[in-house]
């Protein structure tokens, strides 16, 4: 092995998402967000299709959409506690909505393009964490209900939200959580 990046390995071994309720102001500014998105866009992308895009939700949009999401969740038959929890996620300083926008391709199936958008989400979280920001990739009602993205974020019929990446300054360090027993989840073929 001719190249090893111990700092990157240490980062990956200790990285920890910061839940939205632990994020604080200030949020990264637009220039910093563009830098983080540039790093995230280095995700695997078979065919160089770039089958994803970003919608950055700044404070005014989040303040406007929080109550809309609460009403949307209530309108779908959920109770007040579920609706309040959904809306509270929009209290993050800034959120990047990662959108899967598949490209017609004979070589790259749609599911693979969707995975590329998921890789962008993880890349964005890791870029933010490595830059000293707090970050978390979540889904929830705004992502899982496809009509919310179309109605309120301008998604087209063939697009789908992959995740909401919450960004802000780090508050407390979240406690470590149990990690999987990788050996128990691994099989070997010879």
- The second-level CATH architecture is 3-Layer(aba) Sandwich
Number of domains: 1
The CATH class designation is Alpha Beta
Helix content: 40-55%
Tell me the radius of gyration: 18 Å
Total strand segments: 5
* SSE succession: HEHEHHEHEHHE
Q: How many H/I helices?
A: 7
Structural class: alpha+beta
Detail the poorly predicted runs.
Answer: none
Q: Which shape, going by the Cα principal axes?
A: globular
Q: Name the beta content range.
A: 15-25%
Major sheet details: 5 strands, antiparallel
| Distance N to C terminus | 23 Å
Tell me what the structure shows.
The model has no long low-confidence stretch (mean pLDDT 95). The chain has helices at residues 6-14, 30-40, 59-75, 80-88, 110-130, 141-144, 146-153, and strands at 23-24, 52-57, 94-100, 134-138, 160-170. Strands 1, 2, 3, 4 and 5 form a five-stranded antiparallel β-sheet that branches. The chain has a single domain (27-171), classed as NADH Oxidase, CATH 3.40.109.10. The chain is α+β, with helices and mostly antiparallel strands and 190 residues long. Helix 2 (30-40) crosses helix 5 (110-130) and helix 3 (59-75) runs antiparallel to helix 4 (80-88). It contains seven helices and five strands.
Offer a few descriptive terms.
190 residues, 7 helices, alpha+beta, NADH Oxidase, globular
């Amino acid at each position: 092995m001719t190249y090893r990046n111990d700092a990157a390995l240490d980062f990956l071994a200790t990285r920890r998402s910061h839940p939205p309720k632990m994020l604080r102001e200030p949020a990264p500014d637009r220039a910093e967000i563009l830098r983080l998105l540039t790093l995230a866009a280095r995700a695997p992308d078979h065919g160089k299709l770039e089958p994803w895009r970003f919608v950055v939700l700044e404070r005014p949009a989040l303040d406007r959409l929080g109550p809309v999401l609460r009403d949307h969740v209530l309108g779908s038959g959920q109770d007040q506690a579920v609706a309040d929890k959904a809306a509270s996620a929009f209290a993050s300083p800034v959120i990047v909505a990662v959108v899967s926008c598949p490209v017609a391709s004979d070589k790259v199936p749609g599911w693979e393009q969707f995975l590329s958008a998921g890789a962008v989400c993880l890349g964005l979280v890791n870029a933010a964490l490595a830059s000293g920001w707090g970050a978390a990739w979540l889904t929830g009602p705004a992502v899982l209900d496809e009509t919310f993205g179309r109605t309120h974020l301008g998604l087209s019929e063939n697009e789908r939200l992959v995740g909401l990446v919450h960004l802000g300054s780090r508050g407390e360090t979240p406690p470590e959580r149990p990690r999987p027993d990788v050996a128990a989840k691994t099989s070997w073929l010879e």
